[in-house]
Design brief:
Layout lengths: L10 H19 L1 H9 L10 H31 L5 H17 L8 H9 L6
Helix pairs in contact: 1-3, 1-5, 4-5
Length: about 120
C-alpha cells in the first residue's frame, strides 16, 4: 500500500482522461447531431431540435471543460507539490452523488473515486 499514498499526484491526469473519454463518447453518440449542426452553418443551429441538439452539444462541451479543469489541477499539483484543494474533492463528491441519484445509468460515478482520491490524499504540511 506504500505506493497508494501518492495517487493524489494523478488527480489532474485522471480528470483529463475522464474528459477525453467523455468527449469521445459524446462525439460518437452525437455524430449525427454534430453533422447536422455543421451542415446548417453552426450559428443558431441548435434551435430547431433543441432537446437532442442541446444535450449532445453540452455533453461534448462538458468533456472539454473536464479536460481544462484536469490540466489546471495537474498544473497546480506539479507547481505546489500538494494534493488538490480539499474543497474541490468535496464538491466533486457532492456533485457526483447528486448526478448518480439523478442519472444512475451514466458515467458520473467515475467522479466518486476521483473525489475520494482528493479527499483522502495525504496533506503535506
Amino acid at each position: 500500500m506504500g505506493k497508494m499514498k501518492n495517487w493524489w499526484k494523478y488527480s489532474g491526469i485522471l480528470l483529463i482522461a475522464t474528459g477525453i473519454i467523455h468527449s469521445i463518447v459524446g462525439l460518437v453518440m452525437g455524430c449525427d447531431v454534430y453533422w447536422e449542426i455543421l451542415k446548417s452553418g453552426f450559428v443558431n443551429a441548435i434551435e430547431p431540435h433543441f432537446a437532442v441538439d442541446f444535450a449532445a452539444f453540452w455533453f461534448f462541451i462538458c468533456g472539454i471543460i473536464l479536460i481544462i479543469f484536469g490540466q489546471t489541477l495537474h498544473y497546480y499539483i506539479r507547481k505546489t507539490k500538494q494534493p488538490a484543494p480539499l474543497l474541490s474533492g468535496y464538491w466533486m463528491l457532492a456533485l457526483s452523488i447528486f448526478g448518480c441519484i439523478a442519472m444512475p445509468l451514466s458515467g458520473i460515478w467515475l467522479f466518486i473515486p476521483q473525489a475520494l482520491l482528493i479527499i483522502f490524499a495525504k496533506r503535506i504540511k
